[in-house]
Design brief:
Blueprint: H1 13-26, H2 39-46, H3 50-62, E1 66-69, E2 73-76, H4 80-88, H5 92-98, H6 106-114, E3 121-122, H7 135-143, H8 161-172, E4 183-186, H9 189-199, E5 206-210, E6 227-231, H10 237-245, E7 250-254, H11 268-281, E8 285-288, H12 303-306, E9 312-317, E10 329-332, H13 335-349, H14 354-366, H15 368-394, E11 399-400, E12 409-414, H16 421-429, E13 432-433, E14 435-436, E15 447-451, H17 457-469
Parallel strand pairs: 3-13, 5-6, 5-7, 7-8, 8-9
Antiparallel strand pairs: 1-2, 4-10, 9-10, 11-12, 12-15, 14-15
The structure holds pyridoxal-5'-phosphate.
Organism: Psychrobacillus soli
Cofactor: pyridoxal 5'-phosphate
Pfam families: Aminotran_1_2, GntR
Length: 471
Amino acid sequence: MQWKPDRHSHLSLHIQIVDWMKTHIERGEWTVGTKLPPQRKLAELLGVNRSTIIDVLDELKADGLLEMKRGAGTFVSNNSWNVLLNKSQPDWHKHIQASIHKPNYHTIQLINEYEQDSCIIRLGTGELSPDLLPTKLLEQSLQSISLNARDIGYSEPKGSKRLRIILSDYLQKRGIHTSPESILIVSGALQALQLISVGLLEQQSIIFQEHPSYLNSVHPFQSAGMQMVSVKRNERLAETLKAGSGKKQSLFYTIPTLHNPTGSSLTPEERKRLLEICAELQIPIIEDDVYHELLFEESPPAMKSLDQTGQVLYVGSVSKTLSPGLRIGWVVAPEPVINRLADIKMQTDYGSSAFSQEIVAHWLSSGLYEEHVASLRQQLKGRSLFVESILNENFRRIATWEKSMGGFYIWLRFNEPVVNKALFLKLIKQKVLINPGYIYDPSDLHHIRLSYAYATLEELKEGLYILLNNI
Ligand SMILES: Cc1ncc(COP(=O)(O)O)c(C=O)c1O
């Protein structure tokens, strides 16, 4: 033992020896069960009185770091790590509970966890199955992408100019006439919602959402302190919005095409009416249009294409069509809004991945994207017909559903309120993962969001069979 306390230090010998012993335990040099030399020997080694050693050992015993075993000596106690951890770590539970962002529902946390299990059948996943992703083509297209040094530096606040020019061209086909200056590239549509929630609204603003709503499963507005007001389709829209908004700032979030989770779409008349009512009440609209390319028939016009006053914030993404892992989406909005969101985005992540932006620019400009999406629609249609035939054969007596018009989902409604957490957990035990309706509307115990996009056909068949046996 080389170390000795410093007699010239302003710290007492007692404190120095206590610190020295604690450090040995903390660093794991004296592991649990390590026997300390006898008191007399310690005093001799450290060059101090035995009474100093007795005081030090008493203190560390009282703290729970050391323990005496009668007739055997002094040992590092079993509990020493717990004692040190409790003392040295901040109270993270308290930090977590007091923090701003809401946690996911427990059911969603479990979904995220069990999605990693390769043996589980994913009946609800809102993602393309690996065999629908154009992995090989994506890989090949990397050869065609040329980069210069500017491309791979920090991007412009609004994102790659090239991609924005290409997008403004592409969006014309959706009836949206916009300049690259009014487009912001974001890291997925979800980031667009987060930027809007912190960049355009005061706390306690009202967010009108459809009922049920995708927003209940992700919380970007709830975490920013907004009040959520659900609006049922066909409800007296004007009255509800008027009564709900009052003097507060408000915003209407809608997925008019292939709604998540219901798969339904607003008719052109419903779109017009919603626009008119919101225009009259000066309520901006977020049009979340991430599924529109997956409609099996021709798509109704985007609400943004009918927007004369810059009231619609239009959100798109390649996550549902090309690859969610690229994390590329966009917002189209009046320039001052885009400038504001871009400013916050720069404070958040300094821009989206340059590589992902180049890949998306290449796919859109070369025509690869549209070719791929056309074939994807056909494959999704085949899958939807397959699932509907299983439903028709086996679920008619216990559930109802609408024929899928495109996208990923069938909003399956059971006649009885059977879709509770117990069913969710029971199915997990049988290796089937569902998205219960209650994550989109906490009071809903009737629905399951069935996705035909992810699992293989065999898995869909087996999973539905297991589901049926558990109802
Ligand atoms: C309606 C809707 N909006 C946004 C998102 C998020 O998309 P992204 O992966 O582009 O963030 C999803 C994903 O499930 C969605 O269903």
